[in-house]
Amino acid sequence: MELKKLLQNGLSANALKVIAIIAMTIDHAAWLGYDYYPQDPGHALLHCIGRLTAPIMIYFVAEGYHYTHNFKKYASRMAILAIISHFAFCFFNGSDFNPFTNLIFNATSVIWPLFCGLILLKIWDMESLKKHLKCLITILICILTFTSDWSLAAPLAILMIGRNRDSFAKQMLWLMAMCSLYAVMIFLFADHIYGMVHLATWFSVPLLSLYNSKLGKPKWLGKFFYYYYPVHMILLGLINKYFF
Predict the structure, then answer these.
(1) Which segments in the chain show pLDDT lower than 50?
(2) How far is CA 96 from CA 52, 119, 242, in A?
(3) Could you give the CA distance from residue 176 to residue 196 in angstroms, rounded to a whole number?
(4) Can you state the percent helix, strand and coil of the chain, rounding each to 5?
(5) Residue 130 — φ and ψ, nearest 5°?
(6) Exposure string (b/e) for 47-83, b if CB count within 10 Å is 16 or more?
(7) How far apart are CA 15 and CA 66, in angstroms?
(8) Model confidence pLDDT, tens digit, residues 46-81
(9) How far apart are CA 229 and CA 226, in angstroms?
(10) From CA 49, how far away is CA 201, in angstroms rounded?
(11) CA proximity to 88, closest of 72, 71, 111, 67
């Protein structure tokens, strides 16, 4: 009966964000004590759960762009969060705060490519810009986000989700295409098993299909979702530093 009720009523944005928060915390906590990719099935399962988070975050950046009444305020908040999250992310990873010292992956947090995806949506909605200039800016943003967590997959996915609001199927195809591209990148340049783990992002599609286009309660949870990211990174970084 509960499942039937869920299928009928769907999930609000806040409900999906709570799922993303839980999955993200499980994923990041599974890294405690490790500075490499654990190969055992238990850790792989925990990281598979964590793959639900990024697609939900990506989807709701595009949703936020559509519903916001003040783009400048939204973009400014994301930019500040990207700066704060960079230091929290590097502290958790134990990596250099200088992003130019890491030219492959994880030079900065996922918030940076999320912010860049938001900017791309605005760029492509500007009728005053020629299409070739929009394409050049898109390529530039792909370069600027390449070394970050979720790389160029995140901004491109946000752009295509936002440009295909008329079709959920197209949105999901683009989202999973970009997530799968990132999985291939991880497989080729970082770790084979972890690359395959990233394919678990496909399990986010059934969850997003339950989205009922409602914010849900409490309303403050929407902003809390973003603030939670750097705070939990710092806390887990402290636990890792002093206990592992």
Answers:
(1) 1
(2) 27, 26, 19
(3) 14
(4) 75, 0, 25
(5) -70, 155
(6) bbbbbbbbbbbbbbbbbbbeeeeeeeebbebbbebbe
(7) 19
(8) 999 999 999 999 999 999 999 999 999 999 999 999
(9) 6
(10) 9
(11) 111
pLDDT at 214: 92
Q: How far apart are the first and last CA of the chain?
A: 44
pTM: predicted TM-score of the whole model, two decimal places = 0.94
Q: Count the Cβ atoms, other than its own, within 10 Å of residue 189.
A: 10
Distance in angstroms (rounded) separating the CA atoms of residues 190 and 186: 5
The structure tokens listed for 122 are 């605005």
CA angle 63, 198, 34 (to 5 degrees): 115
Tokens of 103: 């030219």
Overall size of the chain counted in residues: 244
Instruction: Report the phi/psi class of residue 126: left, alpha or beta, with left for phi > 0 and alpha for psi in -120 to 50.
Output: beta
Q: How far is CA 182 from the centre of its chain?
A: 12
Tokens for 161? 């989700």
Max distance between CA atoms of the chain, in angstroms, equals 55
Look at residue 67 in the predicted model and tell me its pLDDT.
93
Q: Taking a C-beta distance cutoff of 8 angstroms, is the pair 180, 55 a contact?
A: no
What is the reported pLDDT for 4?
Answer: 56
Contact between residue 211 and residue 16 where contact means Cβ atoms under 8 Å apart:
yes
Token duo for residue 60: 């709701």
- The answer to whether 229 and 77 are in contact (CB under 8 A) is no
